[in-house]
């Protein structure tokens, strides 16, 4: 790919096939030192930081992509639809079977049937019209997220995309430019920010339990080999194809998102630089080689992504983050969720809390029994306390965090409030993935992380997720 001016990238990328888009969006050859001048030239102002849009009493939702995630997010909307806060007005997928499945699921709780858009990989564009929807909920493979979100905003809709919302520097910048130009919300749906444990830790941090925060370790460690190899689990094995073409951290945000909230990233601190190293690749290619399928065996010879990617990230306030990605190796699921401060430390999987002051100072042991429960009860996040029963009653995904995420998004739109996460959060967390690939390509060299907010990050403000009245 030739060096591209990202201002023209939307028209240059155009609307292509999914596979063609992976190839064209893969790697920018722009040296990282140049990005700051590109950002300056882009005229990013930070104006969409606390963006509030018009109140929408009943949010009309167009769901694009009805695979595993799209079907599951339909369920997250059930209570909101039944309460009159939202309506699913359009659905789109290239696979007609998935359209039928979604229609059945929606009919179980909504009397109006959504308009359907299928037939080609460009049919989704017809759903992105303000006569049809207020919000595009994007649950497609990664290579579609940025262009679908950009089209939604350009057509007057708010955009909410599954993770990551982008994986190139150019797309990350252009999402911000368009959000600023159109005054449309653009949120990346990072559900782990709403998990009970993460919200509890955030609340303890806010209350000063951790003292001065210094370091965090986070990850996405999830053995996906069987699912990536499965012929139908991911439509057209889209996820496997990314691993044949890219090397770095391809899925940063489940681990990094919550840590950025802990560290007030973009609300008093920011990510400044990173270095990334990928290990040797073995587990995925061996799994592919061990199948009986010739096409998969051949794919096994082309895996680019190392098994374990480790990225070290520095912040403007001198904190450090260790971020890992591994979906090849066999081991139990883990996001690490480690955060270290001058007065306390938390390790996740399983959750362990160490308090380093008062009677506990220098005690060298995790809190146990009633001592741990006391902290859990005292610092349960108010947003979780208020919504947990509703989430439990409706058996809402991933232990409740998916429901809380969807509730907050729709209610903020109903009330005309700014969203919990803005376009800068999503773009930055995604950009770390793009820059990890860049660093790996450069032999693990340091790569600077550009400021996407025009200096706005340096203003300390409480995180909007603490607004417990929404
Ligand atoms: N946040 C989470 O916990 C979580 C969990 C699972 C998946 N995800 C994310 O959700 C997204 C989808 O993953 P998935 O597991 O549902 O994959 P999937 O393959 O099951 O679903 C993707 C769907 O998009 C459809 N699609 C592809 N191109 C399209 C196009 N041009 N127009 C309309 N539809 C199109 C496919 O037919 C498929 O049904 C990914 O970004 C993934 O990372 C997030």
Short characterization:
This protein is an alpha/beta fold. It contains 17 helices and 14 strands.
Structure report:
- With 470 residues, this protein is an alpha/beta fold.
- It has a domain at 193-466: 2-Layer Sandwich (Dihydrodipicolinate Reductase, domain 2), CATH 3.30.360.10.
- The protein is built from 17 helices and 14 strands.
- The chain has helices at residues 9-13, 18-25, 35-42, 68-82, 96-107, 142-154, 169-182, 196-206, 225-229, 238-245, 253-262, 283-289, 294-300, 369-378, 382-393, 401-415, 423-441; strands at residues 59-64, 86-92, 115-117, 135-138, 158-161, 186-188, 213-221, 271-278, 309-315, 320-326, 338-341, 344-347, 352-355, 447-448.
- The strands form two sheets. Strands 13-12-11-7-10-9-8-14 form an eight-stranded mixed β-sheet, with helices on one face.
- Strand 9 (309-315) and strand 10 (320-326) form a beta hairpin.
- Helix 4 (68-82) packs parallel to helix 5, helix 4 (68-82) packs across helix 16 and helix 12 packs antiparallel against helix 13.
- The chain is globular and about 65 Å long.
- It binds nicotinamide-adenine-dinucleotide.
